[in-house]
Amino acid sequence: MILYEKIRGSIIDGWSMDEVWLAGFRSWLVDVTAVTFDVFDTALTRIVDAPVDVFAIAEATLTQKYGSAFSGYAVRREAGERKAREIAQRENRAEVTLCEIITAIVLDRPDYKFFQSEMIEAELEAERLTCFAVPEIVEAVRICTGQGIRVAFVSDMYLSADMIRTLLLSAGYDGTQPLLVSSETGCSKADGRQWSAVQALFGPDARILHIGDNEWSDVITPQQAGLKALVFPRARSDIRRGGPLTPEVLPYSCVTRDSVLRTATVRGEATATRTMSTLGASWGAMVVGSFMRWLARRAQDLGLTHLYFCARDGWLLWQAWKALDLDKKTGIPSSYLYVSRRSVNLGALTTGCRPDCLSDHALAVLGHVPRQETLRNVLNRGGLLDLPPLVEDAISVFGSLDATICGETDSAEVQACLQRHARIVCAHLRQSMTNALCYFRQEGLHEGRPGIVDIGWHASMQASIADILREGGHSPMLYGLYVGLRQAAQSNRIRAGWLEGAFSNDYMQTEHLYGLFNAVATLENALSSPEGTTLGYDWRDGRMQPVLAERCPDVCQYKELIAPFQQATLHAMERIFSGTHPLGLTGEDLTLAGGEAAISRLSLSPTTDELTVLGSIRHSPDLAHAHVATLIPELQSGAVIGSHLELWRREWAVGSALAALRRCGNPEKRELLANDIRRQCGYYDSRTLRQFT
């Protein structure tokens, strides 16, 4: 259960005052006779990640009191405000009131008409639960009062002045200062007309300084009206226009806001490193923590005898299992299994081949060239560069190992070449399989009821492990427990054994999983280990040892981005499970629904910093780890932004779409691009689609 009072108190107790900003503020007071303060995200701020999350709290309250009719209320509340503003715009009004918003909701849901006062009270209670006074602004008001400088509060807000004054009083302000609210004045800071009311309040000779978080309405428009303006970004929150808006997102929302506010004044640390640490303490803890809780329960229910966490994507999951001492708590031992698609799937290909003839499946895996690659990379991903007759034949066909090949014709040529050298290719695959079999026996995969833990998706590695064990005369009983499964995993069930995903399973419709699938590359990189991929196995020091490629494509990337994320994830997660998290969160708060909501919020509606940092991660999606590129190519300065974007080719479709729209300077081209993106993402939710404008 989320204890909002405890969260609010913890954030305040852990607040680090921004003395640099306060010193700058004092210097601005020379020759100033009055200071106005923005209210929300300046004088007051909330303990939730996005302002709209207040509606999710209201939904939780209404659902608990009045039942499932209020399920989905938060999204309806957001839509109701949009409808009320459309009506106000047609009537040439700058602002709406909360009552008008509630009326707009009732127009859409007539069954709510008997609950209008309850809906208003639920929202006001959510505001009271989440709002608190920003310490720097409390101090700034005290400084002004001490110097005899007049103070007023100004807000562009649908709440009434009485409602906002109640929040200010509850947070600790004395409530004696004037308060100008757009819902009552009919003017707003954003359109610039509110500043006339401010000047009228203080008189024509007043020298006024305004403080606020919004660059437009708190800096540019007051300056245009002749006021001084100083930005206060410390408590600024992100709107999060897309992704889930439900009570399930609230644990992630609160822990994210806490992490952001605690690091808001950190100076000297690289922004990217700080962003990843913040993500680890919030997103990482929620996602990995909820998965761990599910994994421990399912492993016990299935009676598993050992858990094998697969390299490289299962690295953080294994670290989390150990950090939480789950070997002891569940009675199920664990170990780290050095496997990869290359080391396992290639060896398994031999089970369908004859010594002098490659199977169609083997040819498709080894010789398929779906995108432009060099011949060298195509042969390397199958470990075939050490077969001179094959290499010489391929060079005679394509000219050189560095020749670029792609498409069905080139794939057919490669496959024909492979088939001409089937005997040595089969022997190579057979040796790979034998080495893998020895490694699996050594690790105990042929015994008991072992669990395979990995990110998942297609479960092809589990199927290949089972094939190799069967080829070695065993009857494996493998249980795959994954972060998620795609529909393609169905074709591997007969070979692989038991398959189960935490956040998605192969019987689910892809159209319902777009949030998770937008996060695939982020998850794979965030959970991965520092070592290179497993190329195969050889005998060393009396044991079958993995042969590893060089470390990940960019060692600095792991040090500066992935390691800080993982360290923060483990630290926050340990505190949650031990009951010592400062926000009062416990393991009970780490549900799969909450983890899924966290995944989708980040993948579908990232902040600018999150988009920039995660989008810069260098990722390798191919079997040989030879092709490496940033997650969002559109962030590169040389990227060409047109009116069409092939989102199905992008590792992070939403990230690429948002980056392209932000970089597109031509209004006409931008409109075409936005329409194209919405067409391709037509099955996304309406909140997320509205971002693409």
UniProtKB/TrEMBL annotation:
<protein>
    <submittedName>
        <fullName>HAD-IA family hydrolase</fullName>
    </submittedName>
</protein>
<dbReference type="InterPro" id="IPR023214">
    <property type="entry name" value="HAD_sf"/>
</dbReference>
<dbReference type="GO" id="GO:0016787">
    <property type="term" value="F:hydrolase activity"/>
</dbReference>
<dbReference type="InterPro" id="IPR036412">
    <property type="entry name" value="HAD-like_sf"/>
</dbReference>
<keyword id="KW-0378">Hydrolase</keyword>
<dbReference type="Pfam" id="PF00702">
    <property type="entry name" value="Hydrolase"/>
</dbReference>
<dbReference type="InterPro" id="IPR006439">
    <property type="entry name" value="HAD-SF_hydro_IA"/>
</dbReference>
